[in-house]
Amino acid sequence: MSDLPQDPVISFGPEDLRGVVTPHNDALVVTATVANYDVARIFIDNGSSVNILFKSTLDQMKVEGFEFEQSSTPLYGFAGHVIPPLGQIVPPLSLGHEHRRVTKMTTFTMVDTPSAYNGILGRPALKDFRGVASTYHQNLKFPVGKGVGVLCGDQKVARQCYEGVVREEGKRARVEANMIMKRKSE
Fold first, then answer.
1. Are 129 and 102 in contact (CB under 8 A)?
2. What CATH number did the domain enclosing 97 receive?
3. 7 domain-assigned
4. Domain that holds residue 131
């Protein structure tokens, strides 16, 4: 038992709902610091096997000095489509604020595909930070020394992202439906 980390207890209670509009079904979308840039619209996804930064985000950050590592393992989207990775970078990722802040070098897979989000923190980052997410409470909590750091979600941004995804999926579905209809009538 002595080999186990002596992390503080992480729990959620009614006080964590302060500022959260309920009832809701919102994703947990946060702002975190990547390579000294505050990056908004980061989706916390404990179903993702990788951490992702989108090429458009990296282009806006104008980050220099990071070497891309080649990555040939394809990623698969929710609908099963293949997303080829551009490579991986390992910038510092900081979660939390002031004295309840933790920074770790974090591997991100870079992809060039449209997204409503700027990044995705998946299981690797949640494991490294020993983070516990509650979409209901709109919080990501993680140990900071003997205390607990908190990263709060932004419901308004989460809803904007969701609306953007729904709008894009609707456009894509209409294009695919038109292609199928044209093939049948040809």
1. yes
2. 2.40.70.10
3. no
4. 22-185
Domain-located, residue 133:
yes
φ, ψ of residue 19 in degrees (nearest 5)? 85, -5
Q: Is residue 9 part of a domain?
A: no
Gap between the Cα atoms of 36 and 34, Å rounded? 5
pLDDT over 80 at 144, yes or no:
yes
148 burial (CB, 10 Å; 0-12 / 13-18 / 19+) is: middle
- Comparing 2 with 144, the larger pLDDT belongs to 144
Judged by DSSP in three states, 89 sits in strand
Give 69's DSSP letter. Answer: B
* Averaged pLDDT for residues 85-113: 93
What are phi and psi for residue 90, nearest 5 degrees?
-130, 75
Backbone phi and psi for residue 23, each to the nearest 5 degrees, phi listed first:
-70, 155
Q: Is the pLDDT of residue 69 over 80?
A: no
- What is the number of domains present in the chain? 1
Residue 4 forms part of a structural domain: no
Q: pTM score, two decimals? A: 0.84
